[in-house]
Amino acid sequence: MKNFFINDLLPEGFKVLLPEEAHKEESISRLILDLFFQNGYLLVKTPMIEYEDNISQNTLKYLHSESFLLIEPETKKILVLRSDITPQLAKLAGTKLKHFARPLRFAYSGEVIRNSKNNYKTEKQLKQIGVELIGGPQDNSMIEILNIAITALQSINIKNITIDFSLPSIFRIIDKKFNLKSNENIKKALENKDTGIMKDKKYNYINGLILMAGTVEEALKVYKDFVFPKKIDELLKNFFKFIKSIKKNNKDLSITVDMTEGNSFLEYFNFGFKIYNKENAKHIAVGGDYKSNNNEIGLGMTFLVSQLLESTTFRYREKIYVPYDIEHKKIKLKKSFIIIKELFANKDILKEAKKQNCNYILNKNGKLKKVN
């Protein structure tokens, strides 16, 4: 008979989670989702595959460079494997859930597949857990999302965080004005954060944007020292006002900005942000605002589960070994324990308990004996 398990190689970027890691991922996911539910966020499940969408105009439409494409055999239509869940929810808000009362509060959890071409990112199979708040006032929506994010991270012992903001809307304005593909000077200045390239005083505000990196307090000082074009100045003024309202409710929250990082947030409308774990400098969540097809402003935040797993220590529940001759109905233990019931007779109890990594053995009197 042919052995089907000889070759267990997977495509690059895909993975199998073995029991311990899978259990950790699922436990953390449930804990976070329960918190979302408690705050009124309704669970929505979206399809893994959809038809290619050339009609949607929202800023979160799929990017072919990030998506795997398939052909449906019967119709020959192009199918897209989802590379992000947020665009699907933005689309739902303007279609099947158009009649729902605003603001809409969604929660989601699921796998996405990305055709990543970044040499530093080999992961293509990712799990996302997140929330979307659509149709609410921007400031209050952001404060609510951040409070939920902070509480969720604290519940898994990630407390030392910083939130890094950028304004992709400014990047789009500059790109539209100068066409960065052909304007090498401005492109180099922004990409390399080099204030020595822009010599023309007329474009000195580009240097102001480059220098606007660091803590939000430092960025505000830079803003006051430069004169910006009207559109950009209005965006910056509103942004600092917005940050002030966030700080009012989260005084100790570490907030940084980098105005020239807009290129990595272009799918968002006015602003994007990443939440970093200061302990290992990994970004564990990403979010921002966007426009749905019916021009509603939405605000969302996604936890990157693989990064969460690397950023937290997980406390596993204790295991109890239950010998073969103890009836299942007589087992009365706390729900916090994991019960390992022996299915074979005449087994060496201590040996089997150690084999199963059990912490205790349950004896016939219902008492627990520590496994040494």
Structural summary, described in words:
The protein is elongated. Helix content is 32%, strand content 23%. With 372 residues, the protein is α+β, with helices and mostly antiparallel strands. The model has no long low-confidence stretch (mean pLDDT 88). Strand 10 (272-277) and strand 11 form a beta hairpin. It has three domains: 10-158 and 284-315, BirA Bifunctional Protein, domain 2; 161-278, Bira Bifunctional Protein, Domain 2 (BirA Bifunctional Protein, domain 2); 319-370. The chain has helices at 19-38, 86-93, 138-155, 168-178, 184-192, 204-211, 216-225, 230-249, 305-311, 349-355, and strands at 42-43, 49-51, 69-71, 78-81, 104-113, 125-134, 161-166, 213-215, 254-258, 272-277, 282-291, 297-304, 319-322, 338-341, 360-362, 368-370. The protein has ten helices and 16 strands. Helix 1 packs across helix 3. It has a nine-stranded mixed β-sheet, sandwiched between helices. Strands 14-13-15-16 form a four-stranded mixed β-sheet, covered by helices on one side. A three-stranded antiparallel β-sheet has the order 2-4-3, with no helix packed on it.
SSE arrangement:
Elements: H1 19-38, E1 42-43, E2 49-51, E3 69-71, E4 78-81, H2 86-93, E5 104-113, E6 125-134, H3 138-155, E7 161-166, H4 168-178, H5 184-192, H6 204-211, E8 213-215, H7 216-225, H8 230-249, E9 254-258, E10 272-277, E11 282-291, E12 297-304, H9 305-311, E13 319-322, E14 338-341, H10 349-355, E15 360-362, E16 368-370
Parallel strand pairs: 1-5, 7-9, 13-14, 13-15
Antiparallel strand pairs: 2-4, 3-4, 5-6, 6-12, 7-10, 8-9, 10-11, 11-12, 15-16
Helix pairs in contact: 1-3
